[in-house]
Specification:
alpha/beta; single chain; 2 domains; 42% helix; Rossmann fold; 4-stranded parallel β-sheet
């Protein structure tokens, strides 16, 4: 009994989540789907994502036939998770910013949430702060540039540490910050570079391990899993960006087959 998970993200960011899932559940079959055609999600409105994602996920689940879905994207989860769950008849696990553990870990009472602009400005994040960090000073910092830098890193291109430092500098301008929540699944892919760019002692946390544990719990609730027909983990790219460097990035994370699903995919 291994199970079959559909991992969905706008691009490569969900690879940080698949890595944590693979550590905990190495036998779990994974099909990764990247919505390259519609990214970056961080520049989309709630309405756009709520209109697109429930129907798209229904179609993908009909084609792939997973046992459950992981929405490995903070922006998609904080905007469209309810609609996706209503559209599907299988469990859906969403990724949300690790604000609760950050509030518990912060010694100064001052921490930051670093995500895409689309994530940090959503009401869902405001509610998480109100629920779990009402007495904390929480800095919200949005960046789409970091998403591009993470994509560069996975494509084998050099990462500009100065550019990373410039993107996170506003977090530290108003006083000491000891904890930063990585509220975009792309950002853990830059963890080493973020540590180098930040002041000494800053901790970066994300939801990857928590999602992996949740996947294990959901998997244990199944009593009648059929054998998975997929022999290898695969990545399906909904767009033209299936060039060799991008294929290699997915293969380096264990996705043996990488397929572009539009006619102009190379």
């Amino acid at each position: 009994m291994t199970g079959h998970a559909l991992i969905f993200d706008s691009g490569v960011g969900g690879l940080s989540v698949t890595a944590e899932i693979r550590k905990l559940l190495p036998a779990l079959q994974q099909t990764y789907i990247a919505d390259d055609e519609f990214r970056p999600y961080g520049e989309k409105t709630d309405k756009q994502l709520r209109t697109r994602l429930p129907g798209l996920l229904w179609i993908l689940c009909e084609a792939v036939r997973p046992d459950f879905v992981v929405i490995a994207c903070n922006t998609a989860s904080t905007s469209a998770l309810t609609g996706i769950r209503e559209a599907l008849s299988i469990p859906v696990i969403g990724v949300v910013p690790a604000i609760k553990p950050a509030a518990q870990m912060s010694l100064s009472g001052r921490f930051a949430v670093l995500g895409t602009p689309g994530t940090v400005r959503r009401k869902y994040v405001d509610q998480l702060i109100a629920d779990f960090a009402p007495d904390h000073d929480v800095i919200l910092q949005g960046s789409t540039r970091l998403v591009a830098l993470a994509e560069d890193k996975l494509a084998g291109r050099p990462v500009d540490i100065a550019a990373i430092k410039a993107q996170i500098a506003p977090i530290f301008e108003g006083g000491p910050v000891d904890t930063v929540v990585l509220a975009c699944t792309h950002f853990p892919l830059l963890r080493e570079e973020l540590i180098r760019a930040a002041p000494d002692g800053v901790r970066f946390i994300d939801s990857g391990e928590a999602i992996a544990r949740r996947v294990k719990t959901v998997l244990a609730e199944f009593t009648d899993l059929a054998p998975c027909e997929v022999e290898v983990d695969r990545a399906l790219l909904l767009g033209p960006d299936a060039a060799p460097a991008r294929r290699s990035a997915f293969q380096n994370f264990g996705f043996t087959r990488v397929v572009g699903l539009l006619p102009d995919a190379r």
